[in-house]
Amino acid sequence: MEQKEQQASYGSKSAKGVYAFLITAIIALLLVLIYLVGIMFFPSFAKMALNIPGLSVVTNALVGSMYTKPEVVQTVSGDSKKPEAVTTEKAQKAQEKEEPMVILEEEPGWDETYFNHCVFLGDSRTVAMSGYGYVPEDSTLAQVGLSHMSAESTIYTFSSGLQYNFKDYVMTHQADVIYISYGVNGMNYSVEEQYKSAYRKLVEDVMFYAPGSDIVIQSIWPVREGYAMTGQIDNNMIDYYNEFLLELAEEKGIYYLDTQSVLKDEYNTMKAEYNSGDGLHYSEAGYEAAMGYLLSHPVPDVE
């Protein structure tokens, strides 16, 4: 009897050991699956994995080439080595010719077919570009309420049912010109350094994903102060960050479009006739003015 009880006890322990092993194996497989899906489809997850000791070796072997950007290349100039920032192909050619690459100047004579060469990345103001019929929906990657700090982690759903993440859209829509139009969202809840570093990273990523495109940073449009929608945002703050965006364009050797200049009145605020009613968003007349300015200040040499 005692021997049978011992055998039953051993059998029970053995079964528990098998169950524990199976559960552990299943959990391990699930973790591996989550890891593989994460590094393949979520850039932020992959970049995090690339910074974890041990795990970084495996991640780099699997997808390192997809996410590691050559931010700086070393070139030899004279007797010393000088770091040269990565630029777009067109920007580099223009710099070699010593041509100015920053503020887009007026160049009349273009028609709306110019927009066929462009895509627009942005927030609700970019959404409205499509809504008012200036550009097709597929030429805009935008979402209402979006800030530049969350643009790259957002999944975008189009009316056709297609979905894109930021990286995939930019890589598959490498138009002649890519306009970056963020900035007003995020002013109320981010500190200055966070705001600036996030914008710089986004610009660098767009340049990396679309090396053959000309990149344009569009100035932040003014608001009409005193409305609930504008919160604590004022036009002096917008002017300050527009100065930063111009400096960023100069730093990266890309273009800057000063759209805000045609949208302000003599009091440095959104023109009253362009106010949609909440002080933040624009009326159709406002978009007519903004898109007209964009069309009369195109990127040169677009074919």
Would you give an account of this structure?
With about 300 residues, the protein is α/β, with parallel strands linked by helices. It folds into 2 domains: about 1-65; about 90-295, 3-Layer(aba) Sandwich (Rossmann fold). The protein has 9 helices and 9 strands. The strands form 3 sheets. The chain has a 5-stranded parallel sheet, with helices on both faces. Strands 1-2 form a two-stranded antiparallel sheet. Strands 5-6 form a two-stranded antiparallel sheet. Helix 5 links the parallel strand 3 and strand 4 (about 140). Helix 1 (about 1-40) packs across helix 2 (about 45-50) and helix 2 (about 45-50) packs across helix 3. The longest helix is centred in the first third of the chain and has 40 residues, at about 1-40. The model is unreliable at about 65-85 (pLDDT under 50).
Question: Can you summarize the main beta sheet?
Answer: 5 strands, parallel
- Strand arrangement within the widest β-sheet reads 4-3-7-8-9
CATH topology name of the largest domain, in short, is Rossmann fold
Ends distance? 93 Å
Order of helices and strands: HHHEEHEHEEEHEHEHEH
Got a strand count?
Answer: 9
Number of domains: 2
By CATH, the superfamily of the largest domain comes out as: SGNH hydrolase
Quickly give the CATH architecture of the largest domain.
3-Layer(aba) Sandwich
- Rounded mean pLDDT score: 81
Structural class by sheet pairing and helices: alpha/beta
Portion of residues within helices:
40-55%
Output the radius of gyration. Answer: 26 Å
Proportion of residues in extended strands: 5-15%
Low-confidence stretches: 63-87
**Number of discrete helical segments:** 9
Q: What is the CATH top level name of the largest domain?
A: Alpha Beta
Rough outline: elongated
